Amino acid sequence: MNFTIEHAGGARDSFGNYKYRILEDGHLIAHYWHDYRGDEHGIDFVNGTSDLWPVGRMIEFVQGGGPKPLTLSEKAIAYLNSKLGR
Fold first, then answer.
1. Which residues pair with 30 in a beta bridge?
2. CB 3.0 to 4.6 Å from 34: which of 25, 41, 52, 56, for a disulfide?
C-alpha cells in the first residue's frame, strides 16, 4: 500500500490548524491536522474514528515541508497500518 499526505488547501487563520489529507493508493482514508505551533495534532479517519496524538509529536508523523515534499514518517506508516488492521 502506498500512503501519501497532501495539504487540504483552503484559507487558514493565522493561528488556525494546518489541515492535510492522507491517501492510500490515491483514495482518501483520513484527515490529519496540527496546530500552528505543532504542539497538538490528531487524525480523523473517514470511517468515523479519530485519535489525538497518533504518534509522539507532530514532527514524528509528518516529514518534509518547505522546499521538501511532505511525507509520512515510518512511525506514521506503521500507525496507519495498525489502525487499518494490517
1. 22, 45
2. 41
Closest alpha carbon to 25 in 80, 73, 82, 74: 80
What whole-number distance in Å separates Cα of residue 86 and Cα of residue 84? 6
* Cα–Cα distance measured from residue 74 to residue 79, given in angstroms and rounded to the nearest whole number: 9
Residue (of 5, 1, 14) closest to 63 by Cα position: 5
pLDDT, tens digit, 9 for 90 and up, residues 9-51: 777 777 889 999 999 999 999 999 999 888 899 999 999 999 9
How far apart (Å, rounded) are the C-alpha atoms in residues 61 and 70? 10
The residue extents of the domains of the chain are: 3-68
Centroid of chain to Cα 3: 10
CB 54 within 8 A of CB 44: no
